[in-house]
Structure formats: structure tokens, C-alpha cells
Amino acid sequence: MSEDWRRAIDLGLALAGGAELPQDPELPALLRRMAPQVGMTAADAEVALGSESGTAALAREIHRRTREGTYRLGRAFGTSDSLKASGDHAGARRVLEAAMAAEVVPIYQAQLQAYLDHVDDSEDT
Fold first, then answer.
1. pLDDT, tens digit, for every residue of 19-37?
2. Which pTM does this prediction carry?
3. DSSP state of 51
4. What residues have CB less than 8 Å from 63, skipping those under 6 apart?
5. What does the alpha-carbon distance between residue 48 and residue 116 come to, in Å, rounded to a whole number?
6. In this structure, are residues 98 and 124 in contact, taking their beta carbons and an 8 Å threshold?
7. Percentage helix, strand, coil, to 5, in the chain?
8. If pLDDT is split at 50, 70 and 90, which confidence band does 121 have?
């Protein structure tokens, strides 16, 4: 995990726990870098950074997307593996396709696609 991701996750956790938005001069740059990594536009990030409440909302949204995407991938990979192990490759594919349809974080989309690309491979290869 990159340092930016770790910092964004830590910030989101702190805000979720009731902490105030830190007065960190590097925070806007961090959020600008992270926004596209979680499927947000640079324009939306800039608008949000125009106010303290918007900045906090942006940090929370980045955290929400990373958290929900992580859970979605874990569930999809686990369920897909179980279905594939039982011989239900079509079911495994459907689970991954459903997760892909819901996913907005580009790196998570790439991980799902990699799983989809190999869902029909035998376990021996």
C-alpha cells in the first residue's frame, strides 16, 4: 500500500472517530492525488477543497470508497473461489462481474478484471 493510501485511510478513520480535520498544509495535495485513484474527478476534488467542510467530505468519501471496495473485493474473491472450487465457473464469473459493475476504484477494477481473466483456468495451471 502506498504512503498516500495509508495516510488517506488513517485520515478517514480519524474523521469517522470524531476527530477534527487536521490543519495540515499537505492535506489538499494528498486529497488531489487520491481522488482520481478512487474514481473521482480532479474537478470534483477541487470543488470540495474550496471549503473546510468540503475537504472533510472529500476525505470521508475517499475513505468510504477504499473501505467499501476492499470489502467488496474480499467478498467477491472468497465467494468466487468457493464457487470455482465446487466446479461452478459460471457462478464464479457472475460474482466477479457483479462486483466489477459496482466498483469505482480503478485499482480494484483492475484486480477484479485479473480475477475474471483467469476464472476459467484450472487449478493446476
1. 999 989 999 999 999 999 9
2. 0.87
3. S
4. 8, 9, 11, 12, 13, 15, 16
5. 35
6. no
7. 75, 0, 25
8. confident
